[in-house]
Amino acid sequence: MKRQREVFDAYLAAWLSRTGREPELQDAERRNPNEGPAISLIYRDFPQNGYVTGASYGLSGFRHSTEKRKPCELAIVMHSREVEWACIPAKIVGALRGFRPFGPGQVIGQVEPLIPGSQMRASMLGEPSSELGPSTLTISQNPDEEFPFREIELIQVYPLHMSERDYAWKHGVDALTRMDWQRLEPLRPPTV
């Protein structure tokens, strides 16, 4: 338990270095509370005024049996002041952790809108946008047996309309990402 808190503190310190500020923290609902925390880190007006950035904490300490990659967490950047967008990564972790490993190229659908009033009900996991910054956070200079990793990989969540989700499932995520669309705009019309 003490080690888990040390890793969380190191993760927060890495985000502090990136953002220059402390986050608001919010617990996310978890499908299985025995699998550990699912916490939202919320940054208002980051990377600039009028944006909200969020990250999960709770995925990096959980290793799926088929996972070969370094530990990861999910993150999001949206051109919005609605903090609900920043909570989506931790909600995904709380709902789906343990079912399969997370990685770029996955498309996740859900029944309800991602946030109240939104038309988007799906997400695509991908490489971090330039607004989010580098794809890794260094959390330790001295890995040990309990947490043998120096870095946590960030995977960005991109909200989708259902038509975009269906297009990605039919034609592949690469076909969708090659299209010209405003990935950080929550009020954008569907691309397809």
Automatic annotation (TrEMBL):
Residues 43-182 form the Suppressor of fused-like domain. InterPro entries: SUFU-like_domain. It holds the Pfam family SUFU. This is Suppressor of fused domain protein. It comes from Streptomyces tardus.
